[in-house]
Amino acid sequence: MIALVVAISVANPPPVSASNDLQVDSREYKLMLEASRFGGSNPLSVIDELWNGPMRQLIQGTDGIEVKGGAFELEKDRAVRFWDTSGGGCTLRKHGYAFRERVKVKDGKEVDKKREVTLKFRHQQAEGVTVKDMRGSHADAKQKFEMDIGIVGDPGSPLRLVYSKSTKQPIGKNKKINTMADPLELFPGLETGLTEEGATVDRNQKLEMVSNLDIRERVYGKPTVDFGAAEAEVSVTLWYDKQAGEFREPLVAEFSFKIDGPTFDTKTLNRAKSLSLALQRLPWADLAASTKTSFVYQYRNFCP
C-alpha cells in the first residue's frame, strides 16, 4: 500500500472544527514491502541492496528527482504495543480509535522514562475527524491532523482516502494499562467521542495487548530524496515479534519518505506523486499488504 500522510503538530490545542486553518507540518508517502526479503541477522545489508539497486534506479529515473545523503543507519529502536478491550470487544477499533504505547529501547532494554502513548481517530470525512476532542491530559501532549491517500491491491484501483487525528503524550514509567479507565483518564475527550460513535463505555472493562503482539520496531534512515524545491527524509521500518526471541524474521516492512512543510511547491508535490506511483513497480513492493495498525489486529484475529 502507498499512502500519503499530511501531518500537523501543535501543542495540546482545544477541539477544532473542520473550518479551522490547520497548518500542515509534513507530508509522508509510504510503500509496504515484502517483509520476508528482510530476514536474517543483518537487515541493514538488505536495505542497502534495495536502496542502491532497484529503488535508486527508479528514483533517479523519475524526472526532476535526485538521491542525496549517505548510507542507511538504525535511527530508532523501540517497543510498540496496541491496546483494546478484551474478549473480542474491540471497543476502540470498532469505533474508529487506536490506542498505542511506544517505549524507547537502548542496549536491548526499554527506557521507561522515554515512554509515550498515542490515541488516534480515523474517519472517511475530514469533518468527522476535526470535530473530535483529542486533548491529552499531559502538558506536553502534541496533536496531529493527517490525511492518508492509499492504493490497495491493484495499482489501477481507485485511491483510498482516510483522515485521522491523533495526540501523543508522555506516560509515567509505573503507569499500568489495565482497563478502559486508563485511556479515558489520559485523553479526557475520549469518552464523549466514543459515545458519539455509538459505543457503550465501561470504565472497568479490561484492556489487552492487541493480538498479544509485543512489537519491536526498528527504523532505519538518513538518506534523502531531492525534489528540487524540497528534500524528503527516507526511512525503512521493520516490525518484529518480541516474543519470538531473535529479531531475524520481520512481520512488517515499510518504506517511506517525508517532505517537511509548512509550504509545499506544486512541482514538488507532483514529483512526489510520480515517485510514489513509480515505486509500485518495484518487485519488493507488497501492494496487497495492510497498514501496520490493521496488521496488528489481524495477526491473531483479535476482533472476530
**Secondary structural class:** alpha+beta
Q: Gyration radius, to the nearest Å?
A: 19 Å
| Largest sheet: spatial strand order | 1-3-13-12-11-5-6-7-9-8
Number of strands: 13
Sheet bearing the most strands, described?
10 strands, antiparallel, barrel
Q: What value does the average pLDDT take? A: 86
Distance between the termini: 24 Å
Low-confidence stretches: 1-22
Percent of residues in beta strands? 35-45%
The total domain count is 1
Number of helices: 7
Q: How do the SSEs run, as a string of H and E? A: EEEHEEHEEHEEHHEEEEHH
Which overall shape is indicated by the principal axes computed on the Cα atoms?
A: globular
Classify the helix fraction into a percent range.
Answer: 10-25%
Account of the protein in words:
There is one protein chain. The chain has 304 residues and is of the alpha+beta class. The protein has one domain. The chain is built from seven helices and 13 strands. The chain has helices at 43-60, 91-94, 126-130, 181-186, 190-196, 266-278, 292-299, and strands at residues 2-7, 10-11, 26-33, 66-68, 73-85, 97-106, 109-123, 142-151, 160-170, 207-209, 215-226, 231-241, 252-260. A ten-stranded antiparallel β-barrel has the order 1-3-13-12-11-5-6-7-9-8. A hairpin with a 4-residue loop joins strand 11 (215-226) and strand 12 (231-241). It starts with a strand and ends in a 5-residue tail after the last helix. Residues 1-22 have low confidence and may be disordered.
